[in-house]
Design goal:
The protein is of the alpha/beta class and about 250 residues long. It has two domains: about 150 residues, Alpha/beta knot (3-Layer(aba) Sandwich), CATH 3.40.1280.10; about 80 residues, tRNA(m1g37)methyltransferase, domain 2 (Trp Operon Repressor, Chain A, Orthogonal Bundle). About 35% of the residues lie in helices and about 15% in strands. The protein has a five-stranded parallel sheet with strand order 2-1-6-5-7. A two-stranded antiparallel ribbon has the order 3-4. Strand 5, helix 3 and strand 6 form a beta-alpha-beta unit.
Length: about 250
């Protein structure tokens, strides 16, 4: 999969060379190409923005530098503009994008981008939440990290993105590691029992309880999906439905 990024601040994208994404690039699973839009401006002062028609605060990124950068690099695929007015990023959207052979992401700044550029390239606007950031680089990295996990070969063989809690419809259960006792705080006994069936049921109960308490919207969606549960798992669900959070501790 090829991911192209148009940005004014390529140095902000350095984290894409690290950890899981860096390994995916090294292994040829992902190809990430970053282009500095300023390199394509026709302005001798390297300006890429100007005041908005109609007045108002701030500056607007111009069409010419972005379009020339896009064409000069031969970019293609789905054109994405990271924007607070876009559709909100979700697991379903990330999976859809991960199946593309190529995408191009524009990182905006200032008060936004000349609408004509977005219209010319058929931009799909995507948001990572209902808030405003300084620029599109951080949202772009969030999008890339999220969709990359769906690409075959990015995660280790023993892991599966669909096994991650949020994609199962539930929040993740609490995790523990060594030592078994720290500052008089003990790891739940069931996790030390070696009984994998009991551990699985405990984790399911914790996930159900946490989702019910912290994300009732997800919990209701999970119930509406009519999950395929075993008799023991169904009993755990019934317990969570009837118990208060205090009783589950």
């Amino acid at each position: 999969m090829k991911i192209n990024i148009l940005t004014l601040f390529p140095e902000m994208l350095a984290p894409l060379q690290q950890s899981m994404l860096g390994r995916a690039v090294e292994n040829g699973i992902l190809e990430i190409d970053v282009t500095d839009i300023r390199e394509y401006t026709e302005d001798k002062h390297r300006r890429v923005d100007d005041t908005p028609y109609g007045g108002g605060a701030g500056m607007v990124m111009q069409v010419q530098p972005i379009l020339d950068a896009y064409n000069a690099k031969g970019y293609g695929g789905e054109f994405i503009y990271m924007s607070p007015r876009g559709e909100v990023l979700s697991g379903e959207l990330a999976k859809e994008l991960s199946e593309k052979e190529e995408i191009t992401i524009l990182c905006g700044h200032y008060e936004g981008v000349d609408q004509r550029l977005l219209d010319m390239l058929g931009a799909r606007e995507i948001s990572i939440g209902d808030y405003v950031l300084t620029g599109g680089e951080l949202p772009a990295m969030v999008l890339i990290d999220t969709l990359a996990r769906f690409a075959p070969g990015v995660l280790p063989k023993e892991e599966s993105v669909m096994n991650e809690s949020i994609y199962s419809g539930l929040l993740e259960y609490p995790q523990y590691s060594r030592p078994a006792v720290f500052n008089d705080m003990e790891v739940p006994e069931v996790l030390l029992s070696g009984d994998h069936g009991a551990v699985d049921l405990w984790r399911l109960e914790q996930s159900l309880a946490l989702t019910k308490e912290k994300r009732p919207d997800l919990f209701e969606k999970y119930l509406a999906s009519e999950p395929n549960l075993s008799k023991k798992e169904r009993a755990v669900l019934e317990k969570v439905l009837s118990d208060s959070p205090e009783q589950l501790e």
